[in-house]
Amino acid sequence: MGAPKAKSVFRYLTAGESHGPALVGIVEGIPAHLRVDLAAINETLARRQGGYGRSPRMKIERDEVEFLAGLRGSETLGSPIAVTVRNRDYLTPKVRALMDPIDGRGEPLTNPRPGHADYAGALKYRQRDLRNVLERASARETAMRVCLGAICAQFLAALGIRTRSYVTQIGDVSAPELDEWAAGDVESSEVRCPDRESGGRMIAAIDAAKASGDTLGGRFIVRIDGMPTGIGSNRQPGARLDGILAGAVMGMQTVRAVEIGLGADVAGTPGSRAHDNFALDRGAVVRASNRAGGIEGGMSNGEAIVLRVSVKPIPTLMKALPSVNLHQHADAPATIVRSDVCVVPAAAIVGEAMVRLALMAPVLEKYGGDSMEETLDNFQRSNAAAAALFASGQSSARQ
Predict the structure, then answer these.
(1) Which among 284, 283, 282, 302 is positioned nearest to 292, based on CA atoms?
(2) CATH code at position 74
């Protein structure tokens, strides 16, 4: 009997400061021979930069990925993939003098922003200059997560797994939640909301917040289609797919809540209306609804996975919140740096990236191989075996 096959390993790292020379990422575990579409990655990076209410910096940056390792002839080699996205803002003399990795210096930032990493990070890392915290805490870092997630999206698409998103709320303006929506309606909307009337009111709310020096949060939906049944596990808590996805999305800078399926509404819903009944349709097992959001018992159940994600308002307000000067021990307004009024449309793109990155380990654990050919063969064999399990209408389990 041969040795047991080692489990596939997937991991990623990002590095880089908001105004440093570049963002850098490494992803490990993607099989060899995945054909990589460079234009699709850059298109996804551009989508992250869009959205009504973004800061003027988005007019400076033109994010494009540069591959440093792990690719040859546009195909993965099975080795770690290293990429970089340059920060164009760093090229300005003022920013470079401030952020040069060797010679960078400047007046310290001393007034922490409520709701940001400034204060806790200063104490944790013993930093008297808050810039040494906020540069890495900035959501600029998510550009690299989106880049790596776009690479993963191409692997997942080879297995028929696809992710998409849209915005359902900005401030106190809500839009209807949809089971289906047209990609064109989302991408043509400045707030990534497929409901045109709601989108217009969202834009008005952002304009009003900007005029008053305020910021707005909101909510978006991420949907995963094409998920096979049985990704994730109920054998150990850390292997549950709902926990993996929720933890990944909560790792975004602005996210404060993640719901799957009915989410918080399940608390007030009786069991008779909380679950998805089984039925037969021409011999196939089907569901009458998708209240579970595609996950039961920590495993994908074959339905679409639906996540509802709530995002807080950005902590940097042009009308600064009350704070203190940590060096002078005196009351002072919070630091003001160039920032967005609303990031919800862009956060939806980051949410897609986090979902893609989170899916890689459990999917590779189920189907992984050293090459795409091996992975696809494992995928097809597993699906065929699952389809045959109850095909006769009788259990094939050993008695």
Answers:
(1) 302
(2) 3.60.150.10
